[in-house]
Design goal:
Number of strands: 15
Distance between the termini: 22 Å
Strand order of the largest sheet: 4-11-10-9-8-5-6-7
Radius of gyration: 23 Å
Order of helices and strands: HEHEEHEHEHEEHEHEHEEHHHEEHEEH
Amino acid sequence: MAEYQKMTREALLAEQQMLLERYKNYQAMGLKLDMSRGKPGKEQLDLSMALLQDTDYIEDGIDLRNYGIIDGIPSCKKLFADLLGVSPDNILMGPNASLSLMYDYIAQCCSHGVLGGTPWGKLPKVKFLCPVPGYDRHFTILEYFGIEMINVAMQSDGPDMDAIEELIKDEAVKGMFCVPKYSNPQGITYSDEVVRRIAALKPAAKDFRIIWDNAYCIHEIYEESDELLNIFDVLPQYGNDDMVIEVCSTSKMTFPGAGISALAASDANIADIRNRLNCQTISYDKMNQHRHAKFFGDVEGMKAHMQKHAAILKPKFEMVLDHLENELGGKGIASWIKPRGGYFISLDVMNGCAKRTGELCREAGVVLTTVGATYPYGKDPNNSNIRIAPSLPPVEELDLAAQILCVSVRLACLEKLLAK
């Protein structure tokens, strides 16, 4: 296919006219299609309905309906310890979403500091490193607490470590948010080298903390999956045992609104967080923890369950990727990564064209993640990144939505080229 930049003006106008006719036909359908967030579809949610049939509430002679066991029940702590490769003593079970665990930890750092250090809220400036494009909820938390965000470019094997190693020389840089496996939105898994360089960091700030949001730790789409080096196996080699707070949840395993979450950290960090929990709650939902532990059985049961999710997601991802290749491939106006897991496809279009693409999609009945949301403060410096979430729509709707997205990308890029 001819690259748009190499076509004559007459050829570009003819291409635009053809696409406008297609676009108007889509508009006439009165569609309402949603690719805005990584929500599991109905078929995926139906996989976990057996959770609701469990009425058992006793474990090891303890009535789970009552108060107590602030850090989580033993069976669930073991399940997540095995999943994350740590000791059950280094696991705290949380509420229905890991987002709450991350928010609460940042709030704790701001109000009480890290392991007895100066509260971040009393410092003149606090900065966080943010690999971009990244997860908008991370940015929302940091913005809420007034923490300055610094963009760090993602590379093919993880964030730019040369940049990180330079930035942490500033004592005001107190931490970093990241999604190390199947990153949101690009689907990149950090290489062993990147994980080791992160584990070996020597920040100027002694209270530097990395929020290791391992949201997609076993969310594979293909049999040939990515492997993430366990950072807790590496941290002690560099005397950085306390530097990482890891979180994960069952939000995209069972029910996003009624799952369970877990936090893994060093002995010192666990003790620090427990101290805050003693003031914050009596306990999280132990009956839900028990239901999940019984439902999965063990880590192998959890992985088997996620293979059922993969069977539903794979055709959806491949449909979108096929449309991208057939409609945008070879035109020199877009690039994307084929992820092996996770929940998103990251599409980069010609600089300056992402917002216009979003507008065209919306006017044709397709809702995308707000363009710019994958960058701090909602400001994509190149106005080029679009996060695609293929999981929620049924296949027939997704087919139409992907077609409209591709036509919108082409029209947005043609508008820019013809305006020159």
